[in-house]
Amino acid sequence: MRKKIVAGNWKMNNGLAESQALITEVRGIIRDELRLDNVDVILFPTHYALPSCVRLLEGSGVFSGAQNCHQEKSGAYTGEVSASMIKSVGATHVIIGHSERRQYFGEDNEICNAKVRSAIEEGLMVLYCIGETLEERESNSHFDILKSQLINGLKEINAQQLNNIVIAYEPVWAIGTGKTATSEQAQEIHAFLREQLSAKYGDSIAQSVRILYGGSVKPDNAKDLFLQKDIDGGLIGGASLKARDFAEIVRAAQ
Ligand code: PEP
Predict the structure, then answer these.
(1) Which residue in 46, 63, 47, 71 sits closest to 121, CA to CA?
(2) Where are the beta strands (DSSP E) in the chain?
(3) Residues 98-115: what's their mean pLDDT?
(4) Fewer beta carbons within 10 angstroms: which end of the chain, N or C?
(5) Cα of 173 to ligand 1 centre, how many Å?
(6) How far is the CA of 76 from the centre of ligand 1 (A)?
(7) Quick one: which atom of ligand 1 is closest to the CA of 234?
(8) What is the pLDDT of the chain when averaged over all its residues?
(9) Domain that holds residue 50
């Protein structure tokens, strides 16, 4: 039985005061209304709000993570933050390979793989994102693209390290567009990804990997998505910026 995950990716939103207020509100709703015994909740604020996030979530059972990291440990990489720095503030998770990083910052599978390996070496849990564009889906090349993103991003990752990796399937055409993949479309891809993991790592390991769906998940479509056999929760963008909506998505995963 795989424990579900609901993760909130705040992207480049919220100043420090707003971040602290939202974290406090989410923490309050979770404490008063929700149980975390069958769902892991993770918040991904901006880098500079991360230390506050860790502090405000202490004792709540909710995890904190960063939206990206650099692949090197330290050095002359102005503006960048390494996995060990993320670890040093007490955060436990990091998102790697988000489509916005691929699209706007030129991150390809090779860079993503270097980042994944660096984060794993530091002992962080990785949410590794993959997803096809609309053109790739319409030209029916999405299975090949997804397989390549998955397998190349996990190059040199062994079965034991895979325990610390969660896959997030996020079709680019569904991110921030209000267009969600149907539950059947998402399930088809999740089953395909699990098959690919099974071919590489064996079936029992593949069955233990959590695969999240991301792309316009909202309180009203979350339940249906999370009921699918191979969908183990969601990576939530826009709806994670509203405490009540995010909490309702966590409720849908319980
Ligand atoms: C995301 O950014 O990971 C995401 C899924 O965004 P949204 O929920 O807004 O589509």
Answers:
(1) 71
(2) 4-9, 39-44, 63-66, 93-96, 125-130, 165-169, 211-214, 233-236
(3) 98
(4) N
(5) 10
(6) 31
(7) 5
(8) 97
(9) 4-253
How many whole angstroms separate alpha carbon 112 and alpha carbon 10?
A: 20
Residue 9 Cα to ligand 1 middle (Å): 7
What would you measure as the largest C-alpha separation in the chain, in angstroms? 48
User: Is the CB of 235 within 6 Å of ligand 1?
Assistant: yes
Is the confidence at residue 180, as pLDDT, over 90? Answer: no
Q: How many domains does the chain have?
A: 1
Q: Is 170 a catalytic residue?
A: yes
pLDDT at 176: 86
Residue 205's domain is classified under what CATH number? Answer: 3.20.20.70
Dihedral of CA 192/193/195/199: which sign? positive
Which of 100, 132, 136, 170 is the catalytic position?
170
Tell me what pLDDT residue 224 has. Answer: 98
Which ligand 1 atom sits nearest the alpha carbon of residue 175?
Answer: 10
Q: pLDDT tens digits for 73-101?
A: 999 999 999 999 999 999 999 999 999 99
